[in-house]
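Are you able to produce any protein sequence you like plus the matching backbone structure tokens because I've never seen that pairing?
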Amino acid sequence: MTSTHSDALVFFGATGDLAYKKIFPSLQAMVKRGHLDVPVVGVAKAGWNLDQLRARAKDSLEKHGGLDPAAFEKLIALLRYVDGDYQDPATFKRLRQELKDAKRPAHYLAIPPVLFETVVQHLAESNCGHGARVIVEKPFGHDLASAQELNRVLLGTFDEADIFRIDHYLGKRAVNNVLAFRFANTFAEAFWNRNYIESVEITMAEDFGVQGRGGFYDQTGTIRDVVQNHMFQVLSNLAMEPPVRGDSESIRDEKVKVLRAIPPIEEDNLVRGQFRGYRDENGVAKDSQTETFAAVKLEIDSWRWKGVPFYIRAGKCLPTTCTEIVAKFHKPPSLIPDKELVENHLRLRLSPEITIAMGMMNLAANAEGMALQTSEMMASHSPRADEMDAYERVLGAAMEGDSTLFAREDYVEEAWRIVEPVLKKNTPVYPYTPNTWGPQEVARVTPPAGWGNPDEKKTLAVASEAA
């Protein structure tokens, strides 16, 4: 099917929390940049009318991102509303009427996954799905079987090329900056392999808890919430081979190859933790065994990475909020005693700012002889105020028909293949104190020289581009 821009955007769940906090601000930004000038149809069962949805949009923008009067006026002029039950065919008849002569609408399902099948079925029966695209929010299933069932439902109405599985993390500029670093810089290829890299670690730390989402989080946990999607996306960007072409399918082919090369996680290579106080959160079971922290060791059995361990950790109530990659190099053969050497490292920080830093050994200040110290040379960039938000970027790409930033069917199923066996084994969950780096047991899944904690970096020189 030819890739033409969507001529309408329908978003189910228009009165929900995601729409309020993320979608309306992104829609206003798209209008402001001139990227959105087609009807925007909200669908929900709230007993509302269009004026109430417009008021909700205004309140959303005032609290999340700022109201731009000119862009907002254009947005509300595009806004439509259909109120009705997702189970009721009449809701979709009204939607078809509201779409008028739109031939390439994009249907964004910002609703619980349990409703996906019902909505997709009604889209097909009402002819709203003909020639359309569908955008679905993560999680893409709860395990491999449910992911396969979701794919069966979606593919029953839509072609794979018209299915856009949103992981908003892929919309973040910093995540895609990993690809730019790897494939736009000649020097990077020389050392980005098993011959020079000893280990790679990826940390996604949050210094807050579940923020009132205890009911959702207790059914999900860290592995399902961020490891098998967000963290695997970062991992595949780090480990993939150069694509043979720059089109979305060639890029996604290489990402899938990375996951295919990863054996399922074994029990000994996983530590799960739960911060003290988690069970007191609303919606959390008093005997909950859901992890709020996970540390994982992975192997990638490819030519480039064979024998290089990849360590992933993610968690809530850790000492800082930061996402960072640290690649540690083999120590060089040297006349200097090995015990005085610290591995060189490459550090890529993805948030809250973008940083590229090289850690190396040099003579200590006022040193006599060959006394050494570790320092970093660093380039850093703070996000600009006018930078695209992740949701703005992915919604715009989906409406354009560009699949690069979205997970393909085979990628989703490979990701579940890697984590599912260990999820079924009921591994222990160890308590940890908030504002620490997880439970003591994490020592079992730790790089040889220890984790490079984001709050322990020393800097030699900074080239800073401020916001």
Remarks:
- The CA atoms of residues 326 and 452 lie 7 Å apart.
- The chain is about 35% helix and 20% strand.
- The first helix runs from residue 17 to 32.
- The radius of gyration is 24 Å.
